[in-house]
Every structure is written in C-alpha cells, then in structure tokens.
Amino acid sequence: MLTIALRNLTARRRRLIGTFLAVFLGVAFLAGTMTLNATLSRNFDNLFATADNGVAAVVRSDTLISDSARTGPIGGLRAPVPSRLADTLRTVPGVAAAEPDIVGYGQLLGADGKAVGGNGPPRLAGNWIPSEQLNAYHLVAGRAPRDVAAGQPVEAVINRGAANSGKLKLGDTTTVQTPLPVRVTIVGIAGFGGQDGIGQSTYVGFTQTVAEKYVGRAGQATQIMVAAKNGASQDTVVAAVTKALPSGVSAISGAAYTKANTDAIGKAFLTFFKAFLLVFAAVALLVASFSIHNTYTILTAQRTRENALLRALGASRAQILRSSLAEAALLGLLASAVGVLGGLGIAQGLKALFDAAGFALPAGGLAVTWTTILLALLVGVGVTALAALGPAVRASRVPPLAALREAALGEARSGFGRVRTPLGAVLLGGGVVLAVAGGSIAAAGAGAAATTVGVVLLGPVAARAAVRVLGSLVTAGGRLAGTTGVLARRNAARDPRRTSATATALMVGVAVVTLLTVFATSVKQSLKDDVDRSFAGDLAVSSPAFGGGGLSPQLAADLRRVPGVEAAVGIGTGTASIGGASADVTFADTDSLARAVSLDVRGGSVAALAGGHAVGVSDKEAKKHPLGSTVSVMFPDGSTGTVPVGLVYGPRGSFEDYLIDAATWSRHADQATDTQVIVKLAPGTSPAAGRAALTAAVVPCGSPDVQDRQQFADAQASGVDVVLTISYVLLVLAIVIALAGIANTLALSVHERTRELGLLRAVGLTRRQARSLVRWESLLVALFGTLGGVALGTFLGWTLVRAASSSTAIAFAASPPILLLILAAGAAAGVLAAARPARRAARLDLLAAIGQE
Amino acid sequence: MNATPTTTTITAPAARAVAAVKRYGSGDAAVYALDGVTVALPTGRFTAVMGPSGSGKSTLMHCLAGLDRLTSGQIYIGDVELGTASDKQLTLLRREKLGFVFQSFNLLPTLSAGENITLPLDLAGRTPDQDWLRTVVDTVDLGDRLKHRPAELSGGQQQRVAVARALAARPEVVFADEPTGNLDSRSAAEVLRLLRTMVTDLGQTLVMVTHDPSAAAYADEVLFLGDGRLVDRLEQPTRDAVLARMQRFGD
User: Does A482 contact B67 at a Cβ distance shorter than 8 Å?
Assistant: First the structure.
C-alpha cells in the first residue's frame, strides 16, 4: 500500500503543488521563528558572558522598586548602595577587586548635534570602571577618562557603535544630556564583549566623580562589582562577601548576574519577536491546513473508483486509510524539509530586516538546533496528516461496489455532515450572544471562538446563497459577464462544501488580518481622540516615541522664557513602587498642568497634588485606592512616604495610572526627565511664529521634535502603525497561501469538468470565454472568502475592543478604506489564482474532452 | 420524399468535404483516418454516416463540424472554407451555424433544460427568436420540464433537450454523434422520430453518425465509410438493406 501512496504522490505532482506550497510556507515561518529566536538568545548569551567574564559577584540592594519597569534599567530598578562599600569589600579574603558601578541615562549628541541612538534601545551612561576585569566595556582606542579642572569639558569613553553612528572620534567635544547638558571630550572608544555595544544602545563612561554628580548621587552606586582572586570560585567569593555586607544589601554570583541580564534582554526583545513571528507561523499553518483539507477532499472524490477497485481487489479499510494518510504524511515531510531550509532563509532575512529597521541585534551566524528541525518537521507532517485525516477516512469508507457503478457518486453524508449546519448555527448564535452580552473578557473570548467555529461550519450553507447574491452583484445581474458569469456562478454554487472549504482558507487569513487592523485602527483613533480631548496647548516638544529618551526638566523652564510662550509644562514618566506594587508614574508641574492638559477630573482636584501632598490616581486604580485613602509610595531612591489620594482622573492616553507633582518626584529620583513639554502660546502669537521660536530654542537639547496638535496626535499613535504594518504583511502571507489553495481547487475542478468544458467549447464557447468562466468562478470564491473574513474579523475586532475597553479607553473604530483595500486584495487574489487553471481550461483539447469517458 | 440523384445535384450542399485526408503520425507509422473523402451533404436532408469501428466516420463528422482539422483537403460549411479559419472563427461558426447532439453528456448539469436549450445563443449574446424557440420546444415536446435540471430528466428527455439545443440557433447543419447510443429502444425511437421530424417539418439539414441499422433507416441517405474512404451510399434505406450492406464489411 505504501507503493500506491508513493505512486499517487508522483503521479499527481501538479495537483499537489498547492498543498506543498501551503505546508512549505507554514513550516518555513515556524522554523524561521525558532531559528531566529535561538540565534538571538545564543548571541545575547555569548555577548554578556564575554562582557561579564571577570565578574565573580555583584552586590546590590535588596529593595526592588520595580522589576518590570518600562522606563527603568534592564533587570529592574533597585535602591542604590553606598559607594564606600567597595572599600570594605576589597579587604574581604578572595576578592581581587571591587568597584562601584553607576548605571543611568545619558543621551549622547552626535557630531551634527542630533541625538544618537536607534529606535528604542537604551542610552546608557555611568562610571568608567578602572578595573579591566570588572568593566563590561573594554577600550579599543584612546584611554580611560580622568577628572579635569572645573569649567573644562569632562572626559568620557563612548562605545564604538555610538561613535560610528554619531560620527564622533577621539578628541571631539560634544554634549551628553543626563538630562542636564554635560560638555564632554571623547578620550576613549570602547567595545562590549566582542561587539561595538549592546545592540544599538549607546554608552557613555565618565569618571566616578562625574558620574556621581550627573548620573547618580554623591556617594551612591547602582551596584558593586566584585572580582575574585585567582583560584577563588564565584560561590566562595559570594559567601565571603555576604558576611561583610550590612543588612539590606546582598551579593549574587557573576553567573547569576549574567543570567539576569540576558533574561531581562530576553523579556524586552525576544518575547516581542517570538510572539510576532509565531503569529505569522500560526496564521500560515492555519490557512495551510484548510487548503490541505480541501485538496485531499477533492482528490478523494476523484479517486473514488480507484479506491473502490482496491477494495474490490481485497484491500481492507485500514489499508486504504493508511495509504491515504501515508501519502499526505510523505508530502508533509517533503514540504516540511524544504520548509526548514526556507526557514533558515527567513531567519537570515528577518535578522537583516530588523538590523535595517534599527533594532540592531548582536552579530553571529544562525543557530540551527535539532529542536528546531525536529519540531518544524513534526508540526509540518502533523498538520498535513491531520488536515488529510477526514478525507482519508472518507476514502476508506468507499464501498467496493462503487468501482462497478458508472454513475457519478454523490458523497454520502457522514454523521457529522448531518449535524454540521445545526451545530454551526448554534455555535454562531450562541457565540454572538456571548460575545455581545457576556460582559467579561473570558466570555467575549469564548464567544469569539464559538462564532469563528460556527462561521466555518456554516460555510457550505452560506456559500450557496452568498455566491448567488455576490454573483448577481458582481456580474451586474449577468449583464457584465453574460452567460459566462451565470455559468461561473452556478459552478461555484454546485458544490457548496468545496467552495466554502476553498474560501475558508482565505476567510480565516483575512479575518485574522481584519481583526488586527480593526483593533489597531481603534487604538489609533482612540489615541487621537484622547489627544483632541486632553491637549489644551498649541505645540508640543517630544522625545522619540520609544526608548524613554528624555528631555531635561530645565527645558520647560527655558521654553517659558521664549517670547510668545504663555505656558510650558513638562510631563515625564517614571517607575515607583506604590502600595507595594511596581507602577508607572506620570509626573508633571501640577501648578501649570491645567493650562496645557485638560484632565478628566472625576474627583478631588489637581491643585491638591501641589507640593507632593497628595497623589492622583486613574479611575481604574481608584478601585484599589479611592479618593481620600492613603497609599504608600517608594521612590526610586528608596525613600518611602504615605500620602493621600487627592485626585481621581479619567483615562488619558499618555498618562500613567498615577500622577505625582514633578518637584516632589525629582527630589527622590535621579535623572528625572520629561518625555514631552506642552506649550501654550500667548494670544496673538501665530502657530508658525511660535513654532519657529521653539525650534530654535530646543537646538541645545539635541533638537527634539516640535509638533503641532495634529503631529503630536500622529506621533502618539505611531506605535500602532507597526501593528498595522505587521497585519499587512500577514495579509500578503495569508493571501499567498490561500491563493495556492484556490488555484489548486480550480485546477482540480477544471480537470473534473473536462467533458463539460468540451461540450461548451463544441457548442460555441470561445477560448476567451473559457478563461473568463474560470476567472469569474475564482473571483466569486475569493470574494466570498474575503467578505466573510472581513465581516468575521470586524466582529471579532469589535468584540476585542469592547473587552479591552473595560480596562483602557479605546472605542471601536474601523477604517473603511483599509477594509476596502483588504477586499480588493482578496478579489485580486481570486483573479490571480485563476490564471493557470483558466489557461488550462482554454487550451483544453476539444476532441479528447468530448471523447473522454 | 421522392428523392432521385437529380434532386441531390440541384440542391446546394449545406456542407462539403473535398479530398479530405486526416493522417495521424508520419512515415511508416502513418495512419489514415480519412483517405481522400469527397462528399456533399445536401440541404434539408437527413444523412446517416455508417461504417465499422475505425472506418473514419467520427473523424469525418468532427472535421465537418469544425471540431478537428484535416491534414489536407477542404471542408466547406455553406461557402465558408474551414481550413484557414482560426480557432476563434471555428468556435463562432459552431456557435452560429452548427448544432450538436452527442451520445451522452450533452447537457450542463448546472443549467436547467431551458437554459441548456438557449446556451449557444446565450454564449453568442444573441436574443432567442421566441416564435422559433416555441416551435422547437413544441416539437421536442418538453413544455413542462424546461425548469428541470438534467439530473431530474430521463435519458430520452435529456437527448430531446439536446436536440432542441441543436435547433435553437437555427443552424445550417445539425451533427448528431450516436445520439441514441445510450438509450433504451423506446426512447431511441422517440429521439429518432424527433430527428426525422426536424428534417421533414422544419427543413433542417442533419448528419448523423451511427452504427445502428435501425437508426440509419430514419435517414434519407446512408453513406458507408470503410478504411477512411467513402465506399458506398444508399438512398431511402431500410433497416434490412443497411444491415445487409454492413454485413459485407465483414467479408
């Protein structure tokens, strides 16, 4: 029977191209994702392991202020430790060196006066650790910084990546914003591990004195790095150091420190990549499985007599089943194997793409693991075999008598076939009700899932009606395409199960994309609406949307003195521990806040926050901390306080859940930077004039963007565009796979209808008409799938937005142009998919077609 | 009809084959399906083409009908020579001037009987002549079944629909290829009577390929083909005369 499976495969190569392609793409994405992931993990691991090679132990505070800070340093924000502790540790037996390490923020300005840095990675500044063993960076040119006389530019080392992208070289003088502008002379260029830096992040190393002054605080360090004497193990050093430590401070081994660093990087970068790429793989495989199922259903129908003959000759049901499955599995294996190779290409391509987009990742070859290869093969073969299982079972049920019957064999409706429509109707109805009325996110999710399954089950019923309606619409009641259109419509409606199965592949893909698009559009629109409601100023100065680069708190004060400016309010974001939990905090000058931002005050007043006497909370957090209650706040410097809640405000896009007066915040946080300064112009100052004045005024700060209301709103929503771009790429992918499926089904249909086409050609169908017949049918199927997908996706998007709106302020919004674009893409796919089958239909050998038995 | 050789020459032929040769392969392997057939099919007459398997009768019909091309020689439908016609011209010719009835699978399963009848007109985008259509439908006696799909009709009814379709466009010639091959004898007789009626009453020209002497007996004239050549013709055939002639092929 295996021989038969093999022969079937080789004899029907062309018919299986579509299936092959679908499996190939799905597996390629899966393998690509896993390879890229393994490569990134390995390269980051290597990088940190090399860089922190000489670190035996790290001493740090036990007070963790925030572990998942969006704005804090990699690995979490902790209270500082005294620098003096290093002196104590140097005397501990087994310790070769101990140095304080100050880690903070410093934005380097390049030779052109613009901020250096990619689209997100941190801009780091700290002290240049004199011990080569302990410094993760090493000099590749120049020398270590030395303290200089007051009034002179201070000396600094920068990493080579930053030097290259900022076009800075040894001896150059530039500015580092910490956020206070510091004039520096570059005396050294450094590498990190074997690389020019940690990805695209920038690094500036000062002397300890300078770092304490601008980055940290006098006498304090982020942590203390300890090196071991020859022969002393990390554990011994940790044990010895621990004995010498005061309470509230503890030591971890160098290995644990490296692992914490790589884990944190993993959280920050890799989780995003992984999710992003796995969605691709999942969509590809999902769409593929529908295509495979469909192809095998048709093949089984075409082979009914073959299988019946085998049964008549004595093949058992199990043998037929095994043979069908073996054929699918072989095909799956073949496609998966090629898919794994394609995956390596995808991994390489994506890596290059991310590099080009500014998310530079550590260099190094691809990490191809056995896990990747085996899992990708397993998934590919599994999906193919599973999708072919139904048709294989059907093939095995063919009665031997069917071989002798001349008549076309109507497919016997299986038990599932009878309950399919009622089950689909129940699931769809129940799903919609649950999604609309359910209330909770879980109910909405379950409702959405039930709706999707219901729609897929109802496909055949819908296909017949939809094709009829669509057909009349598209062909303008037959006037546009004439008889060809009518015939195409009838053909598409003649086997609704096949039509719907073909269209389902496209539908599922389009639904996922529409869901993403609708959600992204809603978020984007809501962000813009939010700006419209809250933005009371005329212009805004913003730091880049990503990466927490900051504006000096001095900037708002400076801008207030610019002629024509009535008010300038700096708004920043930081991390604190509130009520014992890590929380993101917005801080602003509460005296002038109301002049730039119209807050949706639900209780209390903004004035109550002045002087740090109270905090504001969003109405979401007010459930935990209602107006008038008190909360404990631990600031980044480790100091704590208990303050009342003096304000409850409604959701505002760029505002975090807690609001604290800026003066209070900056007393307890190092390097408090603003992310935006909102400027209100004096009456009589034109926006253009105000803008020109501001643009000139911000030059010393590295020329951050000066935006009007519209640009500000667009910038706030710009992160969403990434999601939209992803969804378009997904759309293309889904359509390509579904296209292969449609082309395949059509080719098989053309093959099945050879005699019909022959008859039509004999009674006067021209070749052009034969082509257009196939094309119209394809267009109808594609439109059915796309429309279904858009409708389903829009509903699911609406459900998702509703579910999400309970926690965030987003409202449903769909963009008709984008939905139309998706529809057009689906229709184009239909016409494209028909190209090859249409050509075959037109080239049909007339006599052979008529004579075919 | 009192046909004589004289009337045959007076009536302009609806279709003609002149020195028609159809060769498959070349050199030693060459097989001649048609080996120099010259024949005229008179207008308004029912001509049957007979001959044993491999005699070239189907090839002759396919070539006359523009479904296949000759290796050499000419085919005329009316005054139009088919040798130089493009595929598109042939298609349009079939659509407008020829009608077809095949042995089986004559109808599109997705179209109703009525839609199948007007299919060639619809493909050409022509409006059917309602009076003619009514005449045709009356002749084939399908009045109440026009809305049915082919699957809902008996074999005889399906062939009658096919005959109606062949007539709908008022073609110059109707070709029938073993139209009763798949029918029981009662249905076959019905269809043959119908074919006879369409020649006698409606003045159609009809060419029918068959191997059944009873079917050939409905024709005005029978042409006998053997080994790609026209070997005999029989006016006003009877079943027994045809049978007797056919038996001589075995000798």
Answer: no
